[in-house]
Amino acid sequence: CAAGVKQQIPDIGVQLIDIERNTNGKNITQVEKRLLDNHVPDWAAEDQSVTAQHFMFDPRYPKIFYLYPPAKEEIEAAGETPAVPGTELEIVYTKCPDTVAITDEQWNADNTTIEVDDVWANALQEYILHRAWAKDSESAGNQARSNGHFQTFRMMIGDITEADAAITADEK
Fold first, then answer.
1. How far apart are CA 150 and CA 128, in angstroms?
2. pLDDT digits (tens, 9 = 90+) for 92-127
3. Domain coordinates of the chain in residue numbers?
4. Cβ atoms within 10 A of the Cβ of 67, count?
5. For the chain, which residues score pLDDT lower than 70?
6. What is 38-60 written as a DSSP string?
7. How many angstroms from the chain centroid is the CA of residue 61?
8. Are 94 and 40 within 8 A, CB to CB?
9. Which residues, at least 6 apart from 51, have a Cβ–Cβ distance to it below 8 Å?
10. What end-to-end distance do the CA atoms of the chain give, in Å?
């Protein structure tokens, strides 16, 4: 972790999902920032610690989270001065899949493998069916089929519609 309260997921990440624990085994819990602000007004100015007790996350800023107490940055060994460990966390975050380069041969073959975990196979199939029916959506029946497959796809990937609704409600 970087020194201080404000942290960011790795550059390859898209959104923080959860923080499992400190790597030293200590538990960490999610709290609302406003609660910490109310009960510990100077929390961001407290001494840095190797162990985080709480984290705060706002889905409007999916790559940013805050730690309490402030994180301590690792200090590397220099000469005879030993290294000082910093705050380390086990985090769960989403990332975009790697770009897949497909050659003309692969494109024309019927056996091209898509590099996606098998757990997503059915969701991918639903999305492909949605797109196929959407191509011929002039008929109400085809539009309904397309919409049905898209809703199934969203359900299978765990679309965060509740979080989206909460964000919209908070902004009003």
1. 9
2. 998 887 777 777 887 777 676 767 778 888 999 999
3. 4-95, 104-171
4. 28
5. 81-84, 110, 112, 114, 159-172
6. HH-TTGGGSPPBSS--EEEE-TT
7. 11
8. no
9. 22, 24, 26, 87
10. 34
